[in-house]
Every structure is written in C-alpha cells, then in structure tokens.
Write a structure and sequence with these properties.
Elements lengths: L8 H7 L40 H14 L6 E2 L2 H9 L7 E5 L5 H10 L5 E5 L4 H7 L4 E7 L11 H11 L2 E5 L4 H4 L9 E5 L13 E5 L2 H14 L5 H11 L2 H20 L6 E3 L9 H7 L6 E5 L3 H10 L4 E2 L9 E3 L10 H8 L5 E5 L5 H12 L3
Parallel strand pairs: 2-3, 2-4, 4-5, 5-6, 10-11
Antiparallel strand pairs: 1-7, 6-7, 8-9, 9-12, 11-12
Helix pairs in contact: 1-2, 2-9, 3-4, 5-6, 12-14
This protein binds pyridoxal-5'-phosphate.
Pyridoxal-5'-phosphate binds next to helix 3.
Length: 385
C-alpha cells in the first residue's frame, strides 16, 4: 500500500493535537492549570512531573504547530521574543550570524544588546539578494536569520536560494514566518532549518495573548530547546497555549479573508491620491512580485504605505475609527501602526534611514471586518492630510 495521504492544512489545524480529551470526551483540549502532577511511587508517573518541564495543554499545542509547519517539534515560549531568544541560545561564544537588515526591531535589539556581549557576532545585510548573504558568511557563521516579507518594507528573501547558500556553508537557516503564517508560506519545505513565530500574531489571531514558537527540523534542536524550557523557564502558560489552540482552528479561513481584503486595500491605497507609495508583494509593481507568487500561496494582509511626513501620518492616524492605532498585527481587527515611533523606534533615526524606513510610513494589518468599512475608514482618515 502507498503512503497514506496527509490531511489538508485546515484539517490538521483543527485536529492535530486537538483530539477530544480521552478522560471526558471534551471536544476542546482542557486547560491543565496545574503546576505539578501526583506520582504513584518514586519515578512512576504519567509522563508529566512539573509544568515548567511539560504540561498536557502545551504538548497539544506543540504537536499542532509542528504539524502545520512540517517540523518534528515546536517548543513554545512566553512570547515571540522569548522564542527568538531561545534560538540564539543555540549559539556558542565566537559564533557569527548573518541577519536581514530589516527585521522586527526587537530582534536586532536582542541580538545587539544581549547576545553580542556574550561574544556572538551579528552582521546585517539586505537578504533580498542571496549573494549578499553568501558574501557576509565567514568561517564562524553558524546561522542565517531572515524574515520574509520584512517588517515594515515588505521586501522578500528567496528562501530556496538562501537555503542553498546555507547548505554549502554549513550554516542553519532560521526564518521568522510570523507575517505569512504556515498557511501561506512553508519555510521548511523551502530548506529552512528552524522556523520561528510570534504566535501573538496570526497563529493566535485574536490579539488576546502573547506567545512564541520555534519549529525544529532535527532531534538535537528539539532536545536543546526542551532543555532550555526546563532550564530557563520562559514557557507559555497553559491558558495561553489554549488560546493559540483555539486560534489556529480558524487559521485557514482567517488567512483566506486577510488575503482577500489585503489585496483590495492594497489596490485602493495604490490608487489613492494622498498615498505616495505602497509596499505590498501582491501588487504587480512590487519588485519581487514574481518571487512572491512562487514562494507564497497568498500575499497576506500586511501593507505599508507612504504618507509623505510624520505630520501627515499623524493627521491620518488620529482620524481612524474602524482601524485601531496600535502596535502588533495579525488580529481579526485591523491594526494600524507607525513603524518609526513604534516597532522600529529602537533602531534610531540613523538605523531607520539606512534601511529606508521613513517618518511618513504607516503599516496596516488588514483585519477581517467588512472590507468596505475598512476602505471607507481609510478614505476619511486620508482626507485629513
Ligand atoms: C515579525 C515579528 N517577529 C517577532 C516579534 C516578537 O513577538 P512578541 O511581541 O510576541 O514577543 C514580532 C512582534 O511584533 C514580529 O512582528
């Protein structure tokens, strides 16, 4: 008999790790709010000893996320940054990492202000060109760390090309897949060695909990990260694991709607006379539109646009009503933010200028409200400029 066909994405999202509770038949995974587990005799227990080490609600989420990304394990952490921190602890003194130069601002902050002082070196390059990655690799390079599309400039990196470079140079490719979610982009299938997410965003999808995950492809990565959960303790609580388990059940339908509305909003902004430029990989004018079509199965709902100045950005942001002004992304509600003073404030003016983030840029995470209402809101807010 041939290999059994793998269930589709939406089926895995709803069923893997989400099987009815064997003790009660409850169709949703119980929240195991317990710190410890009773033992029958010394060393005899049901596989759980203490909730920093493991917890049944967490186990279920880890199984689910590993299945969605095509990994072998998916240890979850207290936030996206805790997950990225966990990845960096896989490095040793003297190791070097090549990173994208347009990452979520918190990532270079962690690398430069926490890990650099432990003797780990970081070089930032434009990873849109795989040759830049190859040129930056040194003898001690152990990792290449990319986000695609980037935040907020929506530039893509060719994951297959970069993974070829990494294989030749014996470096691991780590991909932050937060913006696309596994529904639209499967980095492991394209050659990534590790995938990270802020589950706070699309995976949870409801803006009601922080979380992070590192999806592993090799047993030794999984072992080291499970050890780190136990040793350092920045684990995700059972309740927040449950929130993500609840959220991923609708990931497929949410992403489909985010993508449909994202395309409509991008088109609207591209044709709006108050908007000077739109950054969205789904627009045919995006410099990597062809790569986007090849590498992703949708374009998502993250859009950045140029209003011309800080004053213009502020004028419009003060007026939004359906869109909520705030940090974060990936929720069912449309979130609108100002990268220069929010997500990328930590880069400083010089750092932002170097990579092309201006004071007039506004980033929108298009939610799943009626798209006509989002368009009307943006139109009336842009009229203030
Ligand atoms: C792409 C990306 N990665 C990581 C993070 C960090 O995640 P968290 O806020 O859950 O710590 C963020 C947060 O905005 C993000 O946008």
């Amino acid at each position: 008999m041939g290999k059994a066909k793998q269930p589709g994405f939406a089926t895995r999202a709803i069923h893997v790790g989400q099987e009815p509770d064997p003790a009660t038949g409850a169709v949703t995974v119980p929240i195991f709010a317990t710190s410890t587990y009773v033992q029958e005799e010394i060393g005899k227990h049901k596989g759980y000893e203490y909730s920093r080490v493991s917890n049944p609600t967490r186990t279920r989420l880890e199984q689910n996320l590993a299945a969605l990304e095509g990994g072998i394990a998916a240890p979850v952490f207290a936030s996206g940054m805790a997950a990225i921190n966990a990845v960096a602890t896989l490095l040793d003194v003297g190791d070097h990492v090549v990173c994208g130069n347009d990452l979520y601002g918190g990532t270079p902050r962690l690398f430069n202000h926490v890990f650099a002082k432990f003797g780990i070196e970081f070089t930032y390059v434009n990873t849109s060109d795989a040759d830049n990655v190859e040129r930056a690799i040194r003898k001690n390079t152990r990792m290449v760390y990319v986000e695609t599309p980037t935040n907020p400039l929506m530039a893509l990196s060719d994951l297959r090309a970069i993974s070829e470079v990494c294989k030749c140079k014996h470096a691991d490719l780590v991909v932050d897949n937060t913006f696309m979610s596994p529904y639209f982009q499967q980095p492991i299938a394209l050659g990534a060695d590790l995938v990270v997410h802020s589950t706070t965003k699309f995976l949870n999808g409801h803006s009601d909990g922080l979380g992070g995950v590192v999806v592993c492809t090799r047993p030794e990565q999984a072992e080291k990260l499970a050890f780190l959960q136990k040793a350092a303790g920045a684990i995700l609580s059972p309740f927040e694991c449950w929130l993500v388990l609840r959220g991923v059940k609708t990931l497929a339908v949410r992403m489909q709607q985010h993508d449909r509305s994202g395309r409509v909003v991008a088109e609207f902004l591209a044709n709006h006379k108050k908007v000077r430029k739109v950054f969205y990989p789904g627009l045919p004018g995006h410099p990597q539109h062809e790569l986007a079509k090849r590498q992703m199965s949708g374009f998502g709902s993250m859009i950045t646009f140029e209003t011309g100045s800080l004053a213009n950005a502020n004028k419009m942001l003060r007026k939004v009503r359906v869109c909520s002004l705030g940090e974060s992304l990936g929720g069912v509600e449309t979130l609108i933010s100002h990268p220069a003073t929010m997500t990328h404030a930590a880069l400083g003016e010089k750092g932002r200028k170097e990579i092309g983030i201006t004071d007039g840029m506004v980033r929108i995470s298009v939610g799943i409200e009626d798209v006509e209402d989002i368009l009307e809101d943006l139109d009336q807010a842009l009229a203030a400029i």
